[in-house]
Amino acid sequence: MKPFVLRLRSLYRSFFAVVDYLRSPFLLAVRLYWGWQLIQSGWGKLHNLPKVTEFFTSLNLPMPAQMAVFISGVELFGGIFLAVGLLSRLTALVLTVNMIMAYVIADREALRSIFSDPDKFYAAAPYVFLIASLIILIFGPGKVSLDTLLDKVVAKTDARETRSAV
Q1: HSE (CB half, 13 Å, CA atoms) of 40?
Q2: Residue 1: is its pLDDT beyond 70?
Q3: For 131-150, b where at least 16 C-beta lie within 10 A, e where not — what string?
Q4: Among residues 47, 44, 49, which one has the least CA distance to residue 67?
Q5: How far apart are CA 99 and CA 144, in angstroms?
Q6: Does the pTM of the predicted model rise above 0.85?
Q7: Res. 166: pLDDT tops 70
Q8: What single string gives the DSSP state of each residue in 37-75?
Q9: Residue 124: which of 114, 132, 116 has the closest Cα?
Q10: Is residue 13's pLDDT more than 90?
Q11: 102: helix, strand or coil
């Protein structure tokens, strides 16, 4: 019995060691796909500001014209930063807040139905952007990102400065 349990434990560890290798490619795919979607959304809003302003006015948002430009910029530049993995967690935090506010302000009915009718919550426009942002916020950008590259450059610079100081 004991060899069976040990073998099972070994298989379990081996399986999840392989799965761990998929983390960075998965995070890259999430960043690239949803970053591109946000870029397109922000770009579309920037090129239709009167329509976006009208929509924000209908929601009784303060300063709807300025808010339209701001939200469009958040989506455009947030999508770019997310896609390339630059300031990923900070960007994901901003996008998470943006999507939560989109639920609160524009899709309140979907938000209220999170437990009573989850399909309505999942079908709302902010949902997939919210989930993608939360994934990057919680797990980081992965190894294939500008954040990782910058960390390596800064670590090398710190190491050189430490050696020269000694």
Answers
A1: 7
A2: no
A3: ebbbbbbebbbbeebebbee
A4: 49
A5: 25
A6: yes
A7: no
A8: HHHHHHHHHHTTHHHHHHHHHHTT-SSHHHHHHHHHHHH
A9: 114
A10: yes
A11: helix
